[in-house]
What does this fold into?
Amino acid sequence: MLGSLLVLGGMALFVALVYVVVVLGGGALIGSTSSPHLGLSVLATAVVALGFDPVQTRLESVAARVVHRGQPSPYDVLRRFSETLAGSHAEEVPARMARVLANGTGAEWAQVWLVVGDRPILAAIWPPGASREATDEADPRGGDDPGRRSLPVRHGDELLGVLVVQERHRVPLTSVEERLFAGLASQAGLVLQGVRLRAELELRLAELSVRAGELRASRQRVVDAQDAARRRLERDIHDGAQQHLVALAVNLSLAATLAERAPARADELLAAQEAAARETVDTLVRLARGIYPPLLESHGPGAALRAAVEHAGVPVRVVEEDLDRCAPNVEAAAYFCCLEAVQNATKHAGAATIRVTLRGGAGALGLSVEDDGAGYDPAATPPGAGLTNMRDRVESLGGTLTAESVPGRGTRILAELPAPAPSVALAERGA
It folds into this structure.
């Protein structure tokens, strides 16, 4: 307000001074003092018209110096803008830009925002600590906040960022300061392009670092799971098939000894070993199915799942939709993920029914396992070992897995696995 009054008063003084000098002073020189000379009045009007803009601009600059307590002229700030940023490191540019903007416009504070990945990110505030309400989620355009001014920074048609200033209380920007604001926004395009590229690279690097850590942890879990599976298989062989085979060998040896002394007893013992041999074979078949079921290789994951869940204790329906054969590792991942999800629903969810759906598609194999069990709150319940194993198995092939659950309304496991075309998969299988 004070700056506007100074400019208005200065312009009135300029007009009055031109009238006094040209009309009255010129009239005195030519001896026309009784009434204003028409020619001199026209000349004074022309002088005022020609000098109006330059004088107003100069007065606004002076008023800005007075109002903003001797700070540099906005035009000086704009002229030195490139010099100020020359030689600066990329991480220093936003802070320096915000300082130049705040000092040049006399604003209460200035902000520099970058648009990274279609999301505005607050890069700098000047003075530091001002506008504590500003966050990365705030709207850089300021909404309806009084005195908030913002201008986009573009390079061609690309939006790179936004410059924001907050006017001081009752001290709006003058037209000179507004032109300075617009000039800074137009000059900042190339500068912010480099800064944004650095920010995008840093963001991408952080994401890759997180992803690398997750992959390392996933691989370690896969290795641990494989080690645990080997130990479990060794235990099952030792406690199951091996004991059957040892007993069978001992009994056959005993039958051979009794063959001469007690043929009838030997015949009875040999007859009993037939049942023992069948039991041993069944045990080996169960172990083999746990490692890699033969039906999975010969008939695919749908048939293998139907055989595996036949005695699950809960009705399990397996549905195939446009499902073609694909690579063995993809089919194995789908089979074991579905089997893990069914076992989880059977053991922990108290489900009455379970539905497994296998879907084929363009270069993908999708699966879902739905149950009507107790469900859980994903936000409050950390993922268990079963879900972690499923996610590791799927993500190791470049797929995605999500779990959806609501307490009292069951759980749904969804996964999408990249799969080659059937011809490619059959060629791999034949190789």
In short: Residues 247 and 276 are 9 Å apart (CA to CA).
